[in-house]
Amino acid sequence: MSSSKSISNRALILKALCENQSVVSNLSDARDTQTMNRLITSNEKLIDVLDAGTTMRFLTAYFAITNKHKVLTGTARMQERPIGILVDALRLLGATVDYLEKDGFPPIETKGFSTQKVDALTIPAM
C-alpha cells in the first residue's frame, strides 16, 4: 500500500532540499505526487502543475528559496485558486515572486531569494 500524497509530496520536497542525497520509497500513486516527482527536478522554465494545488504551493516555496527562476502555471481552475498568502509570506522572507496575470493567483514567476529579511512572520490560517 502506498503512502498518502500529502506525506509523499513533503518527502519529495525534503529529498530535494537535501540535494537528493536520500532515497524516498513507497510514494503515493496519486497523480499529484507523480506531478511533484516529475517537476521538482525539471530543468524547464515553465512548470505546469495541472490541477495539483499542493504541488503548486510546495514548488512555489521550493523554487523561490532555492533561487530557481520558474514560471508556475496550471489548469484554468488552478489559475482561479488563490496563492496570495503564500506569495506575500515568501516576499516578506526575501523571495522575489511575481504575478503574471491576476494578482493573488497563478501563473506566477519565482525569481529567487535575495537575503532573509525577517526571522519570523505570521500568516492567516485560511
Count the E strands.
4
What value does the Rg take, in angstroms? Answer: 14 Å
Please state how the strands of the largest beta sheet are arranged side by side. Answer: 1-2-4-3
The helix/strand series, from N terminus to C terminus, equals: HHEHEHEE
Distance between the termini: 32 Å
The secondary structure category is alpha+beta
Domain count: 1
Describe, in plain words, how this protein is organized in 3D.
The structure is a single chain. It contains four helices and four strands. By secondary structure, the protein is α+β, with helices and mostly antiparallel strands. The chain has one domain (5-113): Enolpyruvate transferase domain (UDP-n-acetylglucosamine1-carboxyvinyl-transferase, Chain, Alpha-beta prism). The chain has a four-stranded mixed sheet with strand order 1-2-4-3. A hairpin with an 8-residue loop joins strand 3 (95-99) and strand 4 (108-113). The longest helix is centred in the N-terminal third of the chain and has 13 residues, at 5-17. The chain is globular, with a radius of gyration of 14 Å. It starts with a helix and ends in a 13-residue tail after the last strand. The model has no long low-confidence stretch (mean pLDDT 93).
List its traits.
globular; alpha+beta; 126 residues; 4-stranded mixed β-sheet
